[in-house]
Structures are given as structure tokens and as C-alpha cells.
Design goal:
The structure is a homotetramer. Chain A is an alpha+beta fold. In chain A, about 45% of the residues lie in helices and about 10% in strands.
Chain lengths: ~300, ~300, ~300, ~300
Amino acid sequence: MNYHDILARIQEEVLPLSNKGKVADYIPQLAKVDPSKFGMYLHLLNGQSYAVGDWEERFSIQSISKVLMLCMAVSKLGEKVYERVNVEPSGDPFNSLVQLEYERGIPRNPFINAGALVITDMLIDAFNDPKQSFLDFTRAVSGHLDVQCNPAVAESERRCGFKNSAIVNLMKSFGNIKNEVDRVLDLYYDFCSVDMNCQQLAQAFCLIANHGRGIVNDQKYLSESQFKRITAIMMTCGFYDEAGEFAFKVGLPGKSGVGGGIIAILPNEFSLAVWSPGLNEKGNSLVGMKALEIFTTQTACSIF
Amino acid sequence: MNYHDILARIQEEVLPLSNKGKVADYIPQLAKVDPSKFGMYLHLLNGQSYAVGDWEERFSIQSISKVLMLCMAVSKLGEKVYERVNVEPSGDPFNSLVQLEYERGIPRNPFINAGALVITDMLIDAFNDPKQSFLDFTRAVSGHLDVQCNPAVAESERRCGFKNSAIVNLMKSFGNIKNEVDRVLDLYYDFCSVDMNCQQLAQAFCLIANHGRGIVNDQKYLSESQFKRITAIMMTCGFYDEAGEFAFKVGLPGKSGVGGGIIAILPNEFSLAVWSPGLNEKGNSLVGMKALEIFTTQTACSIF
Amino acid sequence: MNYHDILARIQEEVLPLSNKGKVADYIPQLAKVDPSKFGMYLHLLNGQSYAVGDWEERFSIQSISKVLMLCMAVSKLGEKVYERVNVEPSGDPFNSLVQLEYERGIPRNPFINAGALVITDMLIDAFNDPKQSFLDFTRAVSGHLDVQCNPAVAESERRCGFKNSAIVNLMKSFGNIKNEVDRVLDLYYDFCSVDMNCQQLAQAFCLIANHGRGIVNDQKYLSESQFKRITAIMMTCGFYDEAGEFAFKVGLPGKSGVGGGIIAILPNEFSLAVWSPGLNEKGNSLVGMKALEIFTTQTACSIF
Amino acid sequence: MNYHDILARIQEEVLPLSNKGKVADYIPQLAKVDPSKFGMYLHLLNGQSYAVGDWEERFSIQSISKVLMLCMAVSKLGEKVYERVNVEPSGDPFNSLVQLEYERGIPRNPFINAGALVITDMLIDAFNDPKQSFLDFTRAVSGHLDVQCNPAVAESERRCGFKNSAIVNLMKSFGNIKNEVDRVLDLYYDFCSVDMNCQQLAQAFCLIANHGRGIVNDQKYLSESQFKRITAIMMTCGFYDEAGEFAFKVGLPGKSGVGGGIIAILPNEFSLAVWSPGLNEKGNSLVGMKALEIFTTQTACSIF
């Protein structure tokens, strides 16, 4: 069975599940998304691509941007990034302060909010205009020049992000945030607010599937070691408190966001984006998880 | 032996210890205080008073103001104050976020920072000009109209108070802060920045020793039940992680501050303020604790 | 109003509440106790006594024995007892392991299970036959030679005491238990299983009200400092997670047990035992708390 | 370069590091092992094998047996195994009780001590003679009939295993242990005490590399789904608090033990055992980690 047929069958199979998840509703921009949306885009490194459903419709990538932020930070700053953020999985829900306090302000990994906020703080010092640089980077690696932040989403999150404010302030009290708290938060919410569609996301993440070399501009962003590190973090920390479940069911390095998007890659082979807004109780796209599970089962192309 | 002689002997006995403590140094205004300062002021409810040392010199009362804030809140709002802050001792250091997160944003008691910040939030809603009302209240119960906030102290604490910012934001994420985070923090730092001397402090706290009736204006601020509640909280929660030690060594309800002040009361009898800037490792005035211990031993007037 | 009338009125007032509490049911011996039982016994240090209700009926004193264990340990070993157990209130439920693990096996105070188990371990090393010595001590200070352990209760608790086993093993892993785990647990359950009635309990605790001197044999068991320390711990740690509540409502040093007993003392004045099997949600006798609250309100004899 | 040369070069490269690690010393049997020992055995599923150093010398496999225990439990009991043990990585050190208490006695995953103890409890109910069945299973999948438990090691661990006793008792208090505490502990220590050499270990774990089918007896022990689950757990939870580090540096599912052994597999390809007794500060073989890192770098055969 070819990829075209596999994606079509997945769509058919997961369609009845789209009302099982719960759309994130803490900000209006996420709450009003149609829960029946479903899109999937597979980009092979050989240049072929396959798509199904609402793959052209943009959605808020949210935490998926944490991987792009990390790539950008490592590409510019190298290994010293990991002096201020650890690389181990976290046993607590994705925004817990407990572990952060016991570990003296050093986040467990770059994909929990605390970790991404420290990365944001580093990017402020590393770039003159970090927001523009992030957009430049994302556009360059995806090949889509119209990727944009969504100011309404960023502003909404800023207004209700008290837990993130608590996290940044706590880390600053431990000396692990160098810039002004509000500066860090503003930029972080800009990063999370980026809108992309499945195609753009899949093509952007070919950067990682391709061992750190951009598929559009052929630029080498990450060393082999840096590529391995980021892929390993995606493997062990990409899904909040469901990393083990994802490793089992899907068996690919990946990252999810509360907008309902999930990206998964198979190094040397492909990048695969899926989107369905309804979340399971752990905060990951319910239909997206299922779609990826069917995909790796059908194609037998997980890392295991 | 009379009180005059007892205070004199205490001064003599504790003098050699004044270099053992460590002056709080996280803000310049506290760090530059002369560590050899020592003052003590005893105000009996019968009107007599006794003093020794630098009792006329003002210092930053810091956390001692938490008791005055609580009195003011309870006096105005009654028992509903305790719906948003608990009354049990805390087993963790005074500014820990762990317990706060596990207990869903409800602070353990009004004398840890989290609790005092919730009280501050209540005072904003209860008074048109809460800072002025606090000064009015403190001046009224102490009988000293020149009690003032210290803007330089407040501003310094604001600039380095990232842990307090984390605490307020965390509580706001749980819905236990109603006003703007910065509004709460600004007012809180104003409250903590009040400068008073031993005499003023002792006379202000006669309010509590006198079962909630001001000794200057004879006004009834607290019901008998409210008085008991506040005294009980002073007894069990007044000394951070050294409440048990103070109950043993001194045996009086009290409250300390990082400025080196300690207030202790014996209901129906007296209010006693002591000041020495050097702190022990738990953050309480080293010499102040010792002075009070000698006082209750000599006078046999603890609650036990 | 005299004490006789006060106790009578208390009985009348709390009677309707006796079905509100919940009798401890984790072992059959406690579960089968009649929830309508109520007894109270007041022993003044001047020799007078007053009683009401089922004051002659024995019940399982349970955690109240922790105070007697501590008295016995301090009387024999002195201050070094406090090298292996702290004296500060605990912010967690009474048998939590979390704090114990973070504080490296040193219990917060001698009245949580962990602390009493360390005291038990000390008593094994301090006495040839610690169980007999405990009975001898309790009989001597109470003046009742028929005080006994209840083997059925001890055996039942032993069989379901997995959390206590976890606690002892955890402390032993930190080196804070010297004897065999089972030896410590067996003795601990013997201590907790003692049956006493309100009269016996009140008379035994005159030891503490009387500053450490037995009222029956006039023997000095505790120094003045040791007496103060134990009273302070009763004041701040005697009621699990309701210490602050008890300090407010009753305002006396005390200790409760899951058998429904509560002991409270006023130094120099009296010892007061109350018993009602139904517990509130914090594990303290619901009616007992209320009875003591009425008593101190009526007599105005709290420490505040 | 062929595998023979690669192993030889690895040996040469890691030899100077063998004094950098610290041999586990909490029991005499582990403490007396020569720290300069080093062995490695690679078993390809095509039947070829390569070895270097002390690959014939047996060592205590310790926690590596947790994988075999899990395979045996899943093979017999199916998915219901995961109703009593979770499958997510743990953010705390390998034997912490904190998380266990907050998560009501359900261990985070089967490779922390708590999880393996629950698996042991299941095996007691699933087999008449679980110790013999475990040996039968290990012998069958490895093809080595002389695999044995080491009674001296088991006995030594039993005598100092207070933290494990605490863990089992805590889980029993939550109802997640069905059998007698001592029965569970005894069997667990037997399982951990197994002695194997690199060859035996590599050949036993071909079971997993071969998708759950034994390479010696061609028996199908695990379904495809069960194989994936176990491999995913090895990927995310196999190295205590260094799972992310191992995923990065080695990039293979694996498991380590405090005896200095590490097993790693590449599904469909090979099973690779390495042994060097010196541990790094996280409790994993220092030289073993390095050897595996060089291996996957040289052969480019990690999962990424």
C-alpha cells in the first residue's frame, strides 16, 4: 500500500474520533477552532510529499515552536545551551514548579515551559531582534516566507499566563534568567503564537530529519552531535507526561502543542505533521496521536 | 529584681553575642545597618514602660508588619479572611512554592510571604487607599503619628523580589489573587518597608496584648474570637521554621522580621519589642531570640 | 459557675454532635466502639477533680501515648533526644513520607508517627524491658497500677501498619533507627495500644501540668527546661494538621489520639481529659475538640 | 572497519578510563570486584558474534534483570501488567518515595525499584515457583543452562535494603502489593542477584532485538505490541536519571545495572552487552556508557 492510500485510510479511521478530544479553551483564539478539523502532511527527504484533509489550514503551533527555538539556540550558541537547561525527562506535569524549586532553577529539559523560557532568555542575548530572527529562521528552514506570529494569540496568552510568570520569576530568583521578566515572557508568547499549516510544519522539521541541514537552502545548522541531542530530547521529552506512551504507540521522535498539532520525524527518511484540535487528558492531540500510531503500524517505520 | 534591672542585665549578657548573627544583605538598606545595635522596649498594659539600648532608633520592621496587616484585614472583613488563607503552621522554609502548588494556591498561614500577599490583595479591595489606611491604622494603634513607609527599602525589595513575584503569579493562576500582580506586590513592599523603633512597635502591639482594644484610642478593633485567632497564629507560625524553638525558648506569641526586630506579647500583661540586626541561620534575630529567652526565664512570665 | 456545672453543661451541649464524627475503622477494635460515648475528667493540681459521662470507661489512648513516650525518653536520656528528632511543626498530614525523605530521615517532631518511632528506638536502647518500663512509668505518674497494653489492638495495628513499616525502613536507610525494624514496630504498637480512662489520663498528665513532678509520688521526672520543651511541642504539634486550629479554639497545650481521646493541660493549674470516639476529617475527636473549646471559653483559662 | 576491529579499538580507547568510575560498595560482593575489568559482546541476529576483553567473566546483572522480569510478566499476564505500573519516565532519582506517595502507590515505570517490586509481586501470583520460572526463562532465552542466582549477593542486599522495604510497605499501604512484604523482597533480591557474563546477557536480550521471539528456541514470547512497549520503556526509562543522556550519546534502547553491566539492542539487528564495574555519579557504568557511545558513533547504527 502506498503512502497516498495509507493517509487516506488513516483519515477515514480517525474521523469518528474527532469529537472525543477537548479543544484547549483557556484563550478564545484556541477555543473557537472547529474540532472536526484534521490534516496530515508527509514530506519525504527524497522530495516526495503526501497530504490529506485540512493540511493547508493554519493553526497555532504552540509548544511545537519549542523545538525550533532550541534548534536556533544550539545553532548559534552551541553546547553551552545545556549548561542552563537539563536534558532529562520530567516526571511531573508540564508546568510544575515543584521540581524547578528543588533543582534550584534549572529546568529538566528544553521542552517543558520552564526550559523553553530559559531558551527564550538566551535568544534575547544572542540576537539583536530575536523575534525577527526566529521568523527568519523558521521561514528559511520551511521555505515558506509567509510564516507569521499571531499577535492576538500572543496577547491572550500573555494576559492569562500567570503560571508562566511564576516560573520565570522563580528561575530569575535562582539567577537562571538574565533579562527582564516581561521581556522574556513577551518573546516567549510571540514564539508560541506562530501559525503554520501541516505542510509548512512538515517541511520545517525536515531540518531535523535531515540531520540538521536545511532542505530548502542546503545550509548546515546543526552538527551531527547537536542533531542527535535534539532528536534524543524529542524522543524522551516531547509529549509532556505522555512521552513513554508516545514512544510506544508511535515510536518516533516528536513534539506536540496544545493547538492540536504534532510533528514526528524519522531521521534520514521523513517529517510528518498532523493536526486535530481535540486534546486528550494529557494535553496532546487525541486524533493526532492515533493517526501517527496507525501510520507507524502500517508502514512499520518506527525507530524500533 | 525589677524590670529595669532585668533589661539592663539582658543587655549586658547579650552584648558579646551581637557579632554572631548575620545582617540581612539582599538589599543595601538592610546591609548597611550597624550589627552592634541593640534595643528593647517593654510596655505593660498598666501603663508602665521600661527600655534599654537603642530603643529610640528606627529599623525596618519587615515581616512584623504581617501581623498588623492581618489585624487590619480581620478588623474590616471578619472571618472570611480565613477562606483564602489557612491558619496552620508550615513545615517548609518561609517562601517555598512547593506547598503552595500542592495546596492549590491557598497559603498555609498569613505569616508566610504567600499568606501576607493574599492579605494584601484583600486590603486592596477593602480600602480605597490601603497604603494610607495601613499607616493610619498603625499610627492609631501605636499612638505615633510619624510612622512612615521607607520608599527606598520598598523599591529595593521590589527590584529583587522575584520569588515573591513567582508566589503571587502562582496564586493568581489558582484564582487566589484578585488584583493586578504588580499592584499587590507594590503595596506589599510598602507594608514591609515601614520603619519603627522599639517603643513604637511595643506600643502598637499592645493592641493584641489588650485583646484587640487599642490602648491609645480605646477603640475595639478585634472581637475576642478574632484576638484569640491572631494570637494563636503568632504562637504557632510567627518564626518561619523556628516556631517550635521560639515556643520553647520564649513561650510567648510573637513575630520576627529580617530587619532584626521581634515583637512578643503576653495577653493581659505586656508587649515587648526587641531589635538586633544580626540574624541566625533561620532568619530570626539571634540576639533578639536570646534576649527574649532570658526575659521569660527571669520573669517566669511565659504562657507555660 | 463552678466546674461541676460547666462540665454538665458541656455534656448537654455536645451530646447532639456525637453522631457527626466518624469512628476510626481501620482496625476492628476501634471500629466497634459506641460512637455515643462521651467522658470528661478535670484534675486540678490542688487535688480537686470533676467528672462527667463515661469517664470511667477505658479506651485506646493511641497517639496520646506519644507524649508519655517522650517524657520517659527525655527523663532518661536528656536533651540528646532532640538530636534525632526535630521540634518544629509539620505542614503535612501526620504520616507523610515526603518531608522525611527530603530531611534525610530526621522527623519533624516527636508527635508525628516518624518521630514517635525514633523515640521508641531510643527507648529500646535505654531500658532493659522498655514495654514494662513504659507501663511502670505510666502507672507511677497516673497512680493507677492497672494500666495495661491491649494485645489485640497492638496485633491488629501491626497487621495493617504498612505505612509505619515504610517510615521505619526509610529512617533506617538514613541511619536514624538503630534496632531491628520489627522490634521497633512491635514496641511502638504496644505503646499505642494502652487502654486508659479519662480519670487515669488526666491524672497521668498532671505530671506535665505540674512542671515535670509526679503528683502521686512527688518524683521530679523533668527539669524545668525539659518541661517547657515538651509543653511547647504539645502547643505547636499536638493535633496533626489541626495544631493551629486547636491553639485558636482551645488555647492549651494538648494531644489527641485516633481512639477519640484528647488531653489538654494548663501548667500550674490542671489536666483535663476528654473522650468521644467520633473523629473529624483531620483525625481529631470532633466532640472532644468542641468540649474543650467550650471549657476554655467558659472558664477563660486558656494560655492566651 | 569490521566489528572485530571496532570492538578492539573501543577496548583500547576506554582502557585509560577504567579508574575514573566508582565501584558500587554498599555490599561486599560488589565492592570487591576488580575495577579494571572490561568486557563486551555483540550478538548479531544473523548469528555472528564478536567479543573483547573479559566477556566470559560473570558479574551481578542487578537492575538489568528488571527487563527480563518485565518480559516474563508481560508474556504471561499481558497488558494488565500496566494497570499497576505506569510507563512514563521518572524525574527523580531511581529509588525516591516522593513521587510514589503523590501518585498513590503506582510506580512511574517498571525499571525503577518500585516498579520492579510490583512486577515481582505479580510474578508471585502468576507462577507456582517464580524464582525457578525466572531461571528457566532466562536460561531458555539465553541458551545458557548454567545461569544462576547468587545467594550471597541476594542475602547481602536483603540485609541493607531498608529503602526497598520502605517502598514495598508504602505500596502495600496503597493496596498495590498483594503478597507478604518479605516474600516480595526475597524474590526481588533473588532476581537482582543473577550472575551472567556478557555473552549470556547479549544472547538473552536477542529476545527483544528479535521482536519477542527467542533466538535459541524460536518461541514467540511477546506480541509485536508487547515488544514495542518494552523497547519504548528501555528507550525512555532504562538509565535512572540519565535516560536522556543515554538516548543522546548512545541512541539505543538499553538498561544498566549497578554491577557495571549495560545491555543495548537495535531491533532486527543486534544485542550488545558491555561490562565495566566503575560507575559514574548517576549510577551507570562510566566506561560502559563510553564504549557504547563509541560503538554507535563508529557504526552509525543508533536509532536516530
